[in-house]
Amino acid sequence: MSSNGRYFVKDGKPFFWLGDTQWELFRLFSLDDVKVVLENRKDKGFSVIQIMLTGVGDGTKPNLAGQTPWEENDPAVPHEPYFKNVDAMIRMGGENGLIFAIGVFHQLQTCYITFANARKYARWIANRYLDEPNII
Fold this sequence. Notes:
Layout (H helix, E strand, L loop, with lengths): L7 E3 L2 E3 L3 E3 L3 H4 L2 H13 L4 E5 L27 H16 L3 E5 L14 H11 L8
Parallel strand pairs: 3-4, 4-5
Antiparallel strand pairs: 1-2
Helix pairs in contact: 2-3
């Protein structure tokens, strides 16, 4: 945010948020397809891609490689292979100069993300992506 709180800044300059929603990018696309999608969005002038970390729905559906986001559907136990795939896609976004606005919780996930495990899951996500410069 700017020092006066009135606009976004990136590298010290005003930043225009032109967002595209790709809610299922991490789940329903291959790495090759993601490359094409992100290059297309960049070429069309988009600056932000809005994505759900585990896709739309209850969070238990696998990605194209058959990897689910959580072991035994427990958000307190993230499934590393799923998130390595997410990591690769985040890097692709950065290589294309795109910011990812990642939703980490979908309303249908309340049967899995609970008061008992939400803090651990949120902390894990925050620590994993702490140093990624293209995530908000």
